[in-house]
Amino acid sequence: GFNYQVKGDDDYAGLSFGFYNKTCPQLEKIVEDAISSMSKQDPRTPAALLRLLFNDCKVMGCDASILLDVYERSKSEMGSFSNFGIKKRELIGQIKSMVDKVCPNQVSCADILVLAAREAVAVSQGPKIRVPLGRRDSSVAYTNYDADFNLPPADTFIRKSLGFLENLNVGLTIEEQIALLGAHTLGTSHCATIQYRFDAPWIINTDKEFYEKLQKICPKGAASNFNTSLPNDRTPYVFDADIYVESLRGRALLVTDVDLSDDALTAEIAPKFIFNKDLFFKTFSSAFVKLSTADVLTGNDGEIRRQCDKLNGI
């Protein structure tokens, strides 16, 4: 497959490519094997892990704070509706146990989450991204308010979605921001997250037949909407550019994806990714690395958690 190295081995917010060369050389292989077998057991795993990383990084940085169960769920990051449908958090703890058998107390949950998301893309026929390591885990837990403030709600238009990415201050270009939205190529969205589309159908360019199908599958106000999901594009288990194709056809689920083709700024970038897979993969790879450096804790900041869902002091 593709293997993109984004920049030289220089400083990435204090992270480095060889961070575990001496202390845990087997790390990347352990994570790769784990994700490969977890994805065979449940093909929804890669999409879940990619979203898990994104939603961790957007709330106070890539510090594995999304994995903590310190407060009751409603008061934690997971209590935010923007984290509705987040799954597979426990897999990071399972991989951490595997790693700790070989290299006890060396590797952070934050780094394992980044590597797991990287493997999620690769196992779905996407690029294999080389990522710098050395993140430490947060030594505090954040709340549903922190998550609400930092995560785009489901009904966010494209400019505002890009604004959330801009706020990470990791230097994402507009092309890289649009490539990151391409992560929606994996997985599904719940009916509950697209209900607003029925309140104001005229504000979103939607293919009529597709809109009627949505109304049938996701009836307004139905309790079933919290359990019913639809694929984000025609190949929900393959990391490809089909999400952009569906967007241009007016058949995407999330408003950000539909709006992508309506917004002049972004409408010219999406077709480039559709017709040039290599460009999409390269741009996504550099964006992924930048995102993974957002507000990272390094050196003596934070901690290496013993268990991913608990702070060490507690």
- What would CATH call the homologous superfamily of the domain at 176-281? Peroxidase, domain 2
- Strand order, largest beta sheet: 1-2
The tally of helices reads 14
**Based on helices, strands and strand pairing, what is the structural class?**
mainly alpha
GO molecular function, one term: heme binding
Subcellular location: Secreted
Keywords: Calcium, Disulfide bond, Glycoprotein, Heme, Hydrogen peroxide, Iron, Metal-binding, Oxidoreductase, Peroxidase, Secreted
Pfam family, one: peroxidase
SSE blueprint:
Blueprint (H helix, E strand, L loop, with lengths): L2 E2 L22 H15 L3 H13 L31 H14 L6 H15 L4 E2 L14 H7 L7 H9 L7 H8 L6 E3 L5 H4 L8 H10 L11 E3 L10 H7 L6 H5 L4 H4 L1 H7 L1 H15 L23
Parallel strand pairs: 1-2
Antiparallel strand pairs: 3-4
Helix pairs in contact: 1-3, 1-4, 2-4, 3-4, 7-14, 10-13, 13-14
